Automatic annotation (TrEMBL):
It comes from the Eukaryota. Transmembrane segments: none annotated. This is Nucleoside phosphorylase domain-containing protein. One of its GO terms (molecular function) is catalytic activity.
Length: 456
């Protein structure tokens, strides 16, 4: 945009209307002007705010939609007022920033300028509420508007020819605009900052999990909630295995300290000074523990920092510091059967393993992944036991288990998990009393700190 201005022109000198939906788009439009013209008087019924100017030999009127009022109605009002004040306008353009999905037919890239023209089945102007894009990338159109004016279509053909012969001209124009009005926030951010989804990802419709897809450049915290045995820990572990590279953490050893407080500070300092990490609080069900003391400060512009909690009760740890909470549902009946079959591939007792007996078993186990996995392991180890016999064991143990005498903190905990544990323990006790005695002793020890030599 030139600093000098031209003499005041009449209303009839302006032949092109340019409407932007957002102030950011209007700023880009102003940057395209070669000259800015002084404002002209408007009628009493015209509340639009115009920027007048010229690009080459074309005199142009710029306007923006009302602040906070998007859509067809607002655009129609602005266009009607503009053409009433500038009666010589030959056509108006709606120019703005939009998104698109590339396809084999349309190679759309970030930063492209897209100009519509008539196609095989439409006139080239498609009203945004006359169709929708489905998950497969297809646009289902149920309406269209008239084609652009003939003058514009001829101009497009001429520009396409010029682009083939004089490609450098457009690049020079863009470079000139950037040099005059370049600002850091409008500069290319660099390929390393692209936020792209996997090509095979299928976005579901109206899912609350859209909140997951936030700008990953900021530290985020999530909670996975659900009763014991749903598989919360396994979900987190699978996420870590797929998404994380622990090599950098292994190479960058944190300083050793002698106190737990020193360890905590060392961990926090390391996390605050590094990016690309995931911090997991598994089974965060202790209401007396201050998890907030273990959360690093969100300083600067951290990238790919994520914090995951798993717990059973939304009133407990992390509930007040998370960005997103996901309640893990029970598996469906079909998923439960698939898990059982996948974890128990043995053919022993196959004559008893009818669909009805397996359905009865997974229902008895509450469709909990942990309970199904434990039962499957038992049947795989003791292949002479049939599914029907195991169901009888479940009914007997669930009614008399001594462990159920104690009141649990979580009333929604499914007793089928305890039953499967006790069935397995009783069997171990009968087959190998020494192993059962060792397990009884180990229950008093921290499970993460038992020396392997003690188990030999």
């Amino acid at each position: 945009m030139e600093s000098n201005t031209k003499p005041i022109l009449s209303h009839d000198a302006y032949t092109v209307g340019w409407i932007s939906a957002l102030p950011l788009e209007l700023a880009a439009a102003r940057a395209m002007l070669d000259h800015v013209h002084p404002p002209l008087p408007q009628g009493a019924g015209d509340d639009n705010v115009y920027t007048l100017g010229a690009i080459g030999k074309h005199n142009i009127v710029l306007a923006c939609l009302l602040s906070g009022q998007m859509g067809n109605n607002s655009a129609a009002v602005v266009a009607a007022r503009m053409t009433a004040t500038f009666t010589a306008i030959r056509f108006s353009l709606m120019v703005g920033i939009d998104g698109g999905c590339p396809s084999d037919e349309h190679d759309i890239r970030l930063g492209d300028v897209v100009v519509s023209k008539p196609g095989k089945t439409d006139g080239g102007v498609i009203q945004f509420d006359f169709g929708r894009t489905v998950a497969e990338g297809r646009f289902i159109r149920n309406g269209a508007l008239n084609a652009p004016p003939t003058l514009l279509l001829n101009a497009i053909s001429a520009m396409q020819a010029d682009q083939n012969l004089y490609r450098a001209r457009i690049e020079q124009h863009i470079s000139s605009v950037n040099s005059k009005h370049g600002r850091e926030e409008y500069a290319h951010p660099g390929w390393e900052n692209d936020l792209l989804f996997q090509s095979h990802y299928d976005h579901g419709g109206d899912l609350p999990t859209y909140k997951h897809f936030r700008d990953s450049r900021f530290q985020q915290a999530y909670i996975l909630q659900g009763m014991g045995g749903l598989g919360k820990t396994q979900i987190v572990l699978e996420y870590l295995y797929q998404a994380l590279d622990f090599q950098k953490l292994k190479e960058t050893m944190m300083p050793e300290t002698r106190t737990s407080e020193g360890n905590r500070v060392a961990v926090l300092r390391w996390l605050e000074s590094h990016d690309n990490w995931v911090l997991v609080f598994d089974n965060a069900d202790d209401s007396n523990f201050s998890y907030e003391d273990w959360i690093p400060d969100d300083k600067g512009n951290p990238t790919l920092r994520q914090i995951l909690f798993t717990n059973r009760d939304e009133r407990l740890a992390g509930a007040n510091i998370v960005n997103f909470k996901e309640n893990i549902p029970l598996m469906s009946q079909a998923e439960s059967v698939d898990l059982f079959n996948m974890t128990n591939s043995t053919t022993a007792g196959a004559s008893d393993r009818s669909r009805e007996s397996v359905l009865a078993l997974v229902e008895r186990l509450g469709k909990l992944s942990l309970a199904i996995t434990l039962a499957s392991a038992y049947l795989r180890e003791y292949s002479s036991v049939t599914v029907t016999e195991y169901l009888k064991l479940l009914k007997n143990f669930s009614g008399r288990s001594k462990l159920f005498r104690y009141k649990r903190s979580f009333s929604n905990y499914n007793h089928s998990i305890m039953s499967t544990w006790e069935i397995s323990f009783i069997k171990v006790q009968a087959d190998n009393p020494q192993a059962a005695e060792m397990l009884t002793i180990l229950r008093f020890l921290e499970n993460k700190g038992v020396p392997f030599d003690r188990l030999k």
